[in-house]
Amino acid sequence: MIKKILKTIGIIILVIIVGINVYVITTGKTYFYKAVRYNFAGVDDYQLFENRVLHKSTQPQPWLISRDFNRKPLSDKLEKKLDSLKTFAFLVIKNDSVVYESYSDGYSASSFSNSFSMAKTVVSILIGAAIKDGKIKNIDQAVGDFLPDFNSGGKEKITIKHLLTMSSGLNWDESYASPFSMTTEAYYGSDLPKLMSSLKAIEEPGKEFNYLSGNTQVLALILAKATGKHLAEYAEEKLWQPMGAENDALWCLDKKGGIEKAYCCLNSNARDFARLGKLYLQNGNWNGTQIIDSHYVAESLKPANVINPMDGKPIDFYGLHWWLMPNVSNTKAFYARGILGQFVIVVPEYNIIIVRLGNLKGPKIGEQQSEVYTYIEEVIKLF
């Protein structure tokens, strides 16, 4: 009896496996095998993909080192939080000088590490640069002006602002667990333009907040069309070179010679990631050079005029691809964030930039990552 049951179970499993393989092969979703093999994204995944290089600045600008550098030990509360979330890089910059810096697990000030969704913020910054360059009129410009696929089917209503505020109404599947989701296909697949062309408008744009990585990927297609350059090339020109990046960066591609995974996968280090915070702390100006118009910076850090479908209220936590904290330790902050707890946090009142890189994130409090409160509160007390 038991042998018969086991045999039946074995047959069922075999049929499922065969069925999945037939589906994968007939639909062309062969990325499925890579997704199953690697299971979940990791901070060193640049080694799995082709990459395009952002070359380090020909005029590097090292961060100043404070006279109090690493003299103050972190609080027990902060240490425990960093340890529990497997942090391998923690950097604090105040008044344009490094006051604290630590690395572990073989990572250093020059190690590559995946930004994950912090790359979304970089794409927003590049939209600002393209507007300043006159390549894009403004954020209210229709996506269809750049991408023909967005001139019908309801997509003609979508503007760049809708993409930036995560209110496009597109049907992107933001699932990280399913091996067949759009997000998984974008990460492990090899044809991002084809995937983007399959998007459909299913909701009225500009109404509700719905966090979709596909929005950022569409923005990257707009940037490529508007500038005539690969995303990494434009990022090198507008950010890595003028901001004095000390190390090369890598942006993962969908295939050799392909396009960047714009919604994620910019690989750099804590010190160079911190430059993004300084740029916005200085209202788009980098040591006298206006890279992004200050009006765009201000708009980026203003809550988007859309509704949170979870409670039906206007959101206060998201701008133009920046996360906002309207009240933390009686001050305001904004930050870029990645799925494994990658953060570039800016606290303007205290002239502080915090960068945290690691392998785990904490639970959410509403739409905020809970550990960000700890990072800000404890750093403000210490420095």
Report on the architecture of this protein.
By secondary structure, the chain is of the alpha+beta class. It has twelve helices and 17 strands. It has a seven-stranded mixed beta sheet, with helices on both faces. It has a four-stranded antiparallel beta sheet with strand order 1-6-7-5. The longest helix has 26 residues.
Computed CA radius of gyration, to the nearest angstrom:
22 Å
Mean pLDDT across every amino acid position: 92
Helix content: 25-40%
- Helix run count: 12
How many domains? 2
Poorly predicted regions are 5-28
- Main sheet characteristics: 7 strands, mixed
CATH class of the largest domain: Alpha Beta
The fraction of residues in strands falls at: 15-25%
Pairing-aware structural class of the strands and helices? alpha+beta
User: What distance separates the N and C termini?
Assistant: 70 Å
CATH architecture field of the largest domain: 3-Layer(aba) Sandwich
Can you give me a brief rundown of this structure?
With 383 residues, this protein is of the alpha+beta class. It contains twelve helices and 17 strands.
For the structure shown, list the relevant keywords.
383 residues; alpha+beta; Beta-lactamase; seven-stranded mixed beta sheet; four-stranded antiparallel beta sheet; 17 strands; 35% helix; 17% strand; globular
Layout of strands and helices, then pairs:
Layout: H1 2-27, H2 31-38, E1 51-54, E2 64-65, H3 76-84, E3 87-94, E4 97-103, E5 113-114, H4 118-132, H5 160-164, H6 182-188, H7 192-197, H8 213-227, H9 231-240, E6 249-252, E7 266-268, H10 270-281, E8 285-286, E9 289-290, H11 294-300, E10 307-308, E11 313-314, E12 323-328, E13 331-337, E14 343-347, E15 352-358, E16 364-365, E17 368-369, H12 370-382
Parallel strand pairs: 2-4
Antiparallel strand pairs: 1-6, 3-4, 3-15, 5-7, 6-7, 8-9, 10-11, 12-13, 13-14, 14-15, 16-17
Helix pairs in contact: 2-6, 4-8, 4-9
